[in-house]
Amino acid sequence: MMKQSLLLLSCLALSACSTYQVPDSPTFTISGPWAIMPMENHSNTPLASQKAEQLLATELYVKGVATIQYPATINQDLRSILDFSSKQQQAQQWLATQPIEYVISGSIEEWHYKSGLDAEPAVGVTIEVKSAQTGEVYWRASGSRSGWGRESVTGSGQVVIEQLLDGLNIEKSRSTD
Fold first, then answer.
1. Long-range CB contact pairs, 46-54, < 8 A, 24+
2. What structural domains and CATH numbers belong to the chain?
3. What's the pLDDT score for residue 39?
4. 75-102 pLDDT, tens digit each
5. In angstroms, rounded to a whole number, what is the distance separating the alpha carbons of residues 120 and 112?
6. Mean pLDDT across the stretch 48-52?
7. How far apart are CA 25 and CA 63, in angstroms?
8. Torsions phi, psi of 20, nearest 5?
9. Where does the pLDDT of residue 17 fall: very low under 50, low under 70, confident under 90, or very high at 90 and above?
């Protein structure tokens, strides 16, 4: 009885460290690559969105989704690094030249270590899948997680992105012979 109580208490403690809002997803057929577009960085961590975009590409690859990312821009000054609208505009111009059906993007709400003795990582991410042609949002999910003292922010971010993408209903296209 003591072991069962301890196990239940451990599960409750672990689940209290994360929150996910992952609605049912429509079925997405993989017929070609998806474009990963710039994610908005609302956190106080510079370049957090680029880190999340790389994790997103990896997790989609694991699920069998080929992705291409918007071309990197060469930033010469601080303003161009911090100006999301300029980056978004350049990425949209690139997207208009690509034969893409689905676009995946989102935002980073949190991506840092908490203050204090253990300095636990804290991550908050929103992901959405849109039509490349119309911009209509087909699916959106968000999640947040606080990790443990020896865990990295990237590790926590990977867990959040993986949990969110587990909500996507992806069907590989069938070949017709």
1. 46/81, 48/108, 48/111, 49/107, 49/108, 51/111, 51/154, 51/157, 52/106, 52/108, 52/111, 52/125, 52/157, 52/161
2. 17-168 (3.40.50.10610)
3. 96
4. 666 766 667 888 888 899 999 999 999 9
5. 9
6. 95
7. 15
8. -135, 140
9. confident
